[in-house]
Amino acid sequence: MTSLLPDGIGIRMMKSSDMPQVHALHTKLLPVAYPTAFFVQLLIQPQRMCLIATYDGKIIAFASATMETRHSTPGPLGSSGDQTGGGALRVTLLTLGVSPEFRRQGIARRLVHEIVQRLRSSCGAPCHESPPAPSFSESDSTDAVIISAEVARNNSSGQSFYSHLGMQRQLEVDKQSGFGSKAHTCMVLGVMRTVPVS
Q1: I need a labelling partner for 18 at 20 to 30 A (CA). Which of 53, 72, 90, 99 fits?
Q2: Are 152 and 168 in contact (CB under 8 A)?
Q3: Secondary structure element (H or E) that encloses residue 42, with its range
Q4: Are 66 and 92 in contact (CB under 8 A)?
Q5: Could you count the other beta carbons within 10 Å of the beta carbon of residue 76?
Q6: What residues have CB less than 8 Å from 196, skipping those under 6 apart?
Q7: Which residues, 6 or more positions from 172, have their beta carbon under 8 angstroms from its beta carbon?
Q8: If you average pLDDT over residues 72-95, what whole number do you get?
């Protein structure tokens, strides 16, 4: 079930005219300096998407993601060796942020649901949130979306948010995120199950 938004807040796809505001909000909220090419790719690559939340004509939040379909590859959930996830759609959240004055109002949760829903709809059936800490082995790979995100290890509020979405923190990987960031990250993974299209 999708969370309701506060009055006056809308969600829509990012347009090219939104890029300067979206770029500025990324710079304000995230520790990673994303180049202009990142935002252009969100607009022109069909497997990528950026949704924005607006209030009174101002962009207050964003979520960007990319999708890919996994085909029968053996190994851990979502890896290139996933035995249970053959054919499952995988959505990777690239960025997510909400202006501080609009946090804790369900906007981030709604953005995640909307972006997964829209990417999944381009492949078939709509999604709904799975119970906390889902197990992919209990799912049919044709009606599930594997969702993943990288989160800074020192971002406890981000990790808590993803945990409330039913995503689980994976084994520590000592890596640095892209675009030259020095923030060490960990991966969180979860599953959203789809419902039949009527």
Answers
A1: 90
A2: no
A3: helix 36-44
A4: yes
A5: 15
A6: 125
A7: 153, 186
A8: 58
Phi and psi based region of residue 9 (left: phi greater than 0; alpha: psi -120 to 50; beta: remaining): beta
Q: How far is CA 187 from the centre of its chain?
A: 12
* Residue carrying structure tokens 């085909």: 71
Which uninterrupted H or E stretch holds 148?
strand 144-152
Phi and psi torsions of 59, nearest 5°: -80, 120
Q: Hey, what amino acid is at 8?
A: G
pLDDT digits (tens, 9 = 90+) for 99-134: 999 999 999 999 998 998 888 887 654 444 443 334
The helix/strand/coil state of 170 is coil
Reported residue count of the chain is 198
What tokens does 194 get? 């789809």
More confident site: 37 or 154? 37
**Residue from 62, 112, 60, 67 nearest 89 by CA:** 67
In this prediction the pTM is: 0.75
> Comparing C-alpha atoms, which of 108, 113, 95 is closest to residue 160?
108
Tell me how far apart the alpha carbons of residues 78 and 86 are, in angstroms, rounded to a whole number. Answer: 9
